[in-house]
Amino acid sequence: MHGRVAKVLLGMAENIDGQWVVAKLSRQDISKLIGSSREMVSRVIKHMEERSFIELDGSRIILRQRSLMMS
Asked: How many other C-beta atoms are found inside a 10 Å radius of the C-beta of residue 36?
């Protein structure tokens, strides 16, 4: 599950001022893209945030450790 979420985030990220950012992509949108529940996506996002792979900033997701996200 982590790999599928990471793949979506990596594919949707844009370089904005030197940061890789995913803007305006809800957990519901991600769940539809990968065929999973919103609750599961929320758990994966929380886990990625706890491990400092991503940072949540309002409706934006900032990718902190792009190279490790697929590990």
From this structure: 16
